[in-house]
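Many introductory courses stop at the sequence. We go one step further.
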Amino acid sequence: MKMQLFLNTTVLAITAFVGSPAFAQMNMDHGKMGMAAMPGMTDGEVRKIDKDAGKITIKHGDIKHMDMPGMTMVFVAKDKALLDKTTVGAKIQFMVTNEHGQMTVTDIQPAK
């Protein structure tokens, strides 16, 4: 009887541990943590460039690191010189970050 009680208690303890958040964290793939937050290049097409204002309008695909679906929107260029790297109608890849609530393009490259 004592052995059965011991086994039941042990099984309950193991079950409680396996279902606990501590066990779940031990089994997580920490190498993938933050992957969604890692900035990456996004495909787009330049629709408009306003060099004086330092703005560029881009029709873009999903911006995965920001959980943003594809759309057409206006971005601010971190450096106005970036706008010299492209022309209206060009297919590009670009890097965007949210700097103080403002969507900011930090890099523009021709599409591959």
